[in-house]
Specification:
The complex is a heterodimer of chains A (232) and B (162). Chain A contains 5 helices and 10 strands; from the N terminus they run ααβββαββαβαββββ. By secondary structure, chain A is of the alpha/beta class. In chain A, a hairpin with a 2-residue loop joins β9 and β10. In chain B, strands 1-3-2-4-5 form a 5-stranded mixed sheet, with helices on both faces. The chains are: A alpha/beta (232), B alpha/beta (162).
Chain lengths: 232, 162
Amino acid sequence: MKKVVAKLKILVAALILVNVGLVIFSVFCLNKDNLAKLPEPEVTEGLRGELGIDKNINESNIDEYLGRSDAVYRDMRMLVDEANYEKIGGDSYLSGFVAGFEVVPYPMLVNVEGLPEEVGKSYSGKTLFTQKDGKYKANYEESMEFLEYYFPKDKTIFLMCGGGGYAGMTKQMLVSLGWNEKKIYVVGGYWYYEGKNKVEVKKEVDGEVSYDFWKVVYHGIDFDNFTEVKSE
Amino acid sequence: MNRTKKKKFFIGIFGAVFLVLLLAAGVKIMFFSGTVEKFRLEDDSYGDGRTVEVSAEEFEALVSEKQSFLLMAHMAYCPAEMPLTDTTELFVKDKKIRIYVISADEFKKSSLAGKIKYLPTMAVFHKGELVDFLDAESDEDLPYYQSVQGLESWISQYIDLK
């Protein structure tokens, strides 16, 4: 009898240990989001480095980092850029994007300058901020709130555009306004992306070109709903 | 000379020739690799101080015709690409030579897309063969993008500009 009781005690103890182990395993090891540790942002070399494009997470491997619950993905292009990129062999239209990236047009966040003559000016309407000599001045009371909503400071932020320029400028602006540069990755340009998550927007049927902008999650800005900051 | 001695003699000769060739190859690799003799572009490139836009097809024709030329491929999806576009325009006007220009989309359709990963770039072709190009992801090449003098110093390593 005593032997049986002893064996039962051992069995119960073993069962408790197994259950505790399973609980610990499920809490710490099972991660539905598969949130692997991210490498630290590190700017690549050369001209691409001047744009702030990341060495460790860029167009060639962004697929490995999509769908994270601790991140947001932002494409900084206009749906249709007023700059005439066709003059220099480019495309002013957003012809495609990487699935998961939502569009927040950089030219509506801050004034864009320095385009070549033949391209002309980009969007020249209202902007959330005005940039001069590296400093950003809010034009609306809601400007910072807008940025904090679409680029939450407690999340990792992945930025893309057509070639990398707007994405790099966005990081520059966010860091200047107080964001942590170690949480922002300039992934680069959609033009270089050859991964499995392309969403084609441009369509050509019988020589006619059209754009399925309905596929794009687009966050334009209705400035009529914002309160202008009174100039001093 | 008996047969054994003859054998040894010929082995010795071949061995000596082989050693000389090996030495010559070593000297070439150590002292002369990476150096390219300067060459001239096609005659009609000189005096023609402008950029000429080409399609992928037209580019391939230049290659198959074994022409010597300069080609700039620009990245037009990006406002920050501009340094090479502007410096190229100033360079062709100053040196009065022709540089071909290909857009990013046409570049992707061309045979260059497998050889050059990042744009913008300037590529040098000698008799249809790619000699060198500027790498947009290289710190070493960055100064060549950023000024007309930088671009000239790179191009003049390969091309006789006169």
